[in-house]
Amino acid sequence: MNQSLAIFKNFLQWLKQEVENVRFDAKSPYYKSGSNENGFEILVEKILIDNALKLSKKGIESFSHFGHHFPDISIKINSIETIGLELKSARSGNWKINGGSFLESVSDDQYSDIYVFFGLLHSIEKSGSYHYIVKYKPYWEAISDIKVTHSPRYMLNLLGQNNVYDSWEEYDKTRKAPKTEKIKDLKKYLHDHSNEESWYVGDQILPLIYGDLSKEKKDKLVSEALILFPGDFFEITASSKNKYFRAINYFLTQYYVVAPSIRDCFSAGGRKNVNGVEIPKIVDTLKEHSHIIKRLLTKNPDPDFLKLATKSWEEIPHDRSISNPYNQYKNVIQNIFTRFFSEQELEKIGDSLLALAFDD
Questions:
Q1: Which CATH architecture is the domain 3-193 placed in?
Q2: pLDDT tens readout for residues 102-148
């Protein structure tokens, strides 16, 4: 082991202990989990800033790049070698999480290695406080799979043994390759490992028919469309001249799925009456899928999907200060309802407005 790597590994062990020793409550910024603010990132950055002088005396400098940069932090050792640190966190679950995009652009820095530093939020029993439990691993070793959802993305597993790459050098070569070469490598990987048809593989695959999908897959697609284009279905956004157009396009471009009777996916069935107000079927569809919508927006949401959603929600006036994506979505729906229903209808519906669409 070279001297720089030994220094870096000691630094990682120190950082792990520092993070795990911090206790906080649910009101702390370290507890936050949203697309704009991440409590784990806030905590790690504060520890690095507070200990910058101490670390510099050991030949360690840190530079944060939070935002659209991979990895999140650059650690420079003795002003010579740079090792990347990618931060990941989750509120619950296991040591598996979505990684970065397979087609990510090359960052400006030349890294001799990149590590993933993963914090899992843990509730301290009977204390009302929390802390993060941390594991770390070389990024290439943590890559357990490549999945194609909204874009090809690495899957990370801090406990996994089956790796996509055999070495840092192999991963780094792919990371720095031109996009055309990456797509070629991706097609080969998916051809060798995927059990599902994907539009990324081959040139002559016919689109899948919505009606042939499993119920679980249908529910997921409908839920994602309800999250992304809620204003369309209530005909209050610019694209509502054809309120199913963006859903059709999304099914096709993201999943290569065609739905010949797209209306039936969202609005099949009659209206119901609540306190003398006719409620359209799409509201029932929202409620039927509300548990899936909540899971998609709270259980380690796909960052690409979340980015699409928050951009789409900008079409609807709503409270953008809400950091929790699920609560922000509920606020979007509430504002859609207040525009869709008349004042008289809203008065008749009363306080049960959001209960029309959500179970919680």
A1: 3-Layer(aba) Sandwich (3.40)
A2: 877 656 668 999 999 999 999 988 788 999 999 999 999 999 988 87
